[in-house]
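During the no-cost extension, the postdoctoral fellow (Dr. R.K.) reprocessed legacy sequence entries with the updated structure-token encoder. One reprocessed record is reproduced below for audit purposes.
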Amino acid sequence: MNISNEYIIKDNGETIVLFHGSKSGLDGDIRPISRELCDFGKGFYMGTEKMQTLTLVCNFPEAKLYTVKVNLTDLHVIDFEVGIDWALQIAYHRGKLESIKGSNLYQKCSLTLRDCDIVVGCIANDRMFTVLDQFFSGDITDIALVNSLSALELGKQYVALTEKACRKIEILEEKLIDNTERDFLRLKSENLRLEGIRKAEEVYRKHRRDGRFFDEIISGGVS
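Re-encoded structure tokens follow.
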């Protein structure tokens, strides 16, 4: 199986303001040292949507929100649209492709971000996790996946994968999330989760017979 070119290479000298949520605050220089099994592997994760970033860390008592500025000049940036290429990259970095390790598809996924400084894709939150897990477990097809994620209207995440990219990130503001805000964000997060489930289920019903399942896609990439 050939992976289509659904992502866009961006290298236009753009500067962008983003948000980073930390469970206990940053210590030292910004570095690409998140846990391994994140959407795009180890990196420094930032989001375009302030509220979504806040809801990711609102359950931690020492959580902080950082407003950052990123200079993309001279960086190799890959921007994924919501689609099968994007889903397969997440599957690879979450360890969902180990059953086809050694295949052409596995090799292609492992090399896609090899020279990338910053990768851009649909932002991570609990609604996205639920939809992706249903796709990986074979409950919904790729068509249902793409359409349901589009319906959720999630923002984007920018992930600095290299030290070079991290050196181009400037912290503009650091803010501790207080108890009052934390309670509001928990409620907001739960309401968003329930609304996301409702929207996704509508899409599932509409596209239940359209597209291919995850095991059919990855079996087509085995050689």
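The radius of gyration is 18 Å. Confidence is low (pLDDT under 50) at residues 1-12. The remaining legacy entries will be reprocessed before the final report is submitted.
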